[in-house]
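Tutorial handout. Part one gives the primary structure; part two gives the three-dimensional structure as tokens.
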Amino acid sequence: MFAALGISGSGMLVHRTWMDAISDNIANVNTVRATDEEAFRARYVIAQALENGSTGAGVAVGGIELSDAQGRLVFDPTHPLADANGLVRLPEVDLGEQLTTMIMAQRGYQANIAQVDRVKAAYQSALQMGRS
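Part two.
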């Protein structure tokens, strides 16, 4: 049963990291840069399975990748960062996609919490049987 807690804990860590990356992406969806600067690049969490011999031992954050998107040029001549042509650079972050993946990450986190609660209840039942 201790292994189940470790696996659920590792899943919670990955899902929390995923939610942090998504919230960073959402927070920067309207970040404006000059055309000669790099646009904000969305962060994507890479999950990596952990093995314990032939069985799974949970999951870990294998890294965080940045999108390859160069950003999009938008005409906004009134913006202080606009170039001579009135263009500024915005990130290519799709808010709808980010919100959808946030829901998936939240559900994964909640599923791991529910598993921890089930393991905790099993431990408490075992302790009660030992007291009888």
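Part three, for discussion. DSSP finds two helices and four strands in the chain. The longest helix spans residues 95-131.
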